[in-house]
Write a structure and sequence with these properties.
Number of strands: 11
Number of helices: 8
Number of domains: 2
Helix content: 40-55%
Structural class: alpha/beta
Distance between the termini: 40 Å
Strand order of the largest sheet: 2-1-3-4-5
CATH architecture of the largest domain: 3-Layer(aba) Sandwich
Length: about 240
């Protein structure tokens, strides 16, 4: 994915932030950049256009970014990066629960924002490549009984039904499928899936583990596949070991 082909939506009610982000992104090679300064404007832009990434301010004048994120999620699986002045764990967990993929706190270094965006785009490209049809063998299908992951098709099937799976949730599940019965710490998982440990956040992994369980487990509160190993990390159990 060439950067000049990446469509980005910036949503913030501070003109100075929009101008600064647009200038930095232009210097980095991004060319297709739209902006909105209200929640309504963001929703209208998402209805009209397809975006590859959305930077969404939480505190908007009409509705919050948290309020509109679920509606945006109905139309796109594009990465959503929340921008906010609040940095509490509760705020971050709320952002991830609402469908966000990353969380940036103000004031921020614009170069860090660009680095986070590029990391998201690398994962998105991998996901799109895996959804491209190929002739493949069963070695690319990870069968856990209740659910299957088809690596070449980029699909998660649960009880025979294809289940929608955002890019990073899919990437994390695929990583587990490729390494069954192995324990991984949150730091190891973040580095493997998000690609840069220096920007790591334990809450990011925790929330995405929950999203996986919501899809593959009969009872996410009593998981049978993706287990928490207290004090150590997480591991995915092969079906024959359940």
């Amino acid at each position: 994915m060439n950067l000049h082909e990446v469509a980005i939506l910036l949503v913030d009610d501070e003109p100075a932030i929009l101008d600064m982000l647009q200038m930095v992104l232009n210097k980095e090679g991004f060319r297709q950049i739209d902006s909105a300064n209200t929640a309504e404007g963001a929703l209208m832009a998402c209805e009209r256009n397809r975006y590859d990434m959305i930077l969404l301010d939480v505190m908007l004048p009409d509705k919050s970014g948290f309020d509109i994120c679920p509606f945006i999620r109905k139309t796109t699986d594009a990465p959503i990066l929340f921008i906010t002045a609040k940095n509490s764990d509760l705020e971050k967990l709320t952002g991830f629960a609402m469908g966000g993929d990353d969380y940036i706190t103000k004031p921020f270094n614009p170069l860090e924002v660009v680095a986070r965006m590029k990391a998201q785009l690398r994962r998105l490209k991998l996901y799109e490549d895996e959804r491209t049809p190929h002739i493949f063998s069963n070695s690319f299908i990870y069968d856990y009984g209740r659910f299957k992951v088809n690596e070449r098709a980029g699909e998660l099937t649960v009880d025979g039904h294809v289940v929608s799976c955002p890019a990073q949730v899919y990437q994390l599940l695929l990583f587990f499928c490729k390494h069954p019965n192995q324990i991984f710490t949150k730091s190891q998982l973040y580095e493997a899936v998000w690609g840069d440990h220096s920007f790591g956040d334990d809450n990011t992994v925790t929330v995405h583990i929950g999203r996986i369980r919501e899809r593959i487990e009969k009872d996410p509160k009593a998981p049978q596949f993706l287990l928490t190993i207290r004090g150590l990390g997480y591991k995915l159990i092969q079906k024959e070991d359940i």
